[in-house]
Predict the 3D structure of the following.
Amino acid sequence: MDCKTAQKMIDLYIKKQLNTKEMEAFLAHIKDCGECREELEIYFTVYMALQKLDEERDVSFNIQKLLQDNLAASKRKVHRLKIIRIFNFALVLWAEIVLVMVILTQIQAWNAGGYNDTYMYRIVYEREAEPASEEAERESEKMERESVETENRNGKENSTDRRA
Ligand SMILES: [Zn+2]
């Protein structure tokens, strides 16, 4: 954001008429730009002075502190809204993924004439069954073979021992 845009926003900022995006950009500029910050201080002082004059006469107040509080509150608000926005985005994304999976599953089910051949069905119900069938069988076969081999070797060793 350039200084001209920022200075146009000062009035809107003080009157709380900026939307979150504008406020975020404005705060970022004010943080780094001394000139615009000074401008904001002047506007803020005048605005607060006029308001305070309306409310109560000769009251002394710390403009610097008021502006600091005001900026901190705005920053918190922007931060909070940003988190809400990210959370909403994640929620919408999740909902869309679920929706797409539901639609794909439905289409597959229509084409296959049942749910048993859909990806979702296989993912949910057949993932646990898979390793038990093939891999475990292969594993037990291998173990059996090995144990037979060890037995044979032991037997041979025993016989040579006896011969010696
Ligand atoms: Zn500036």
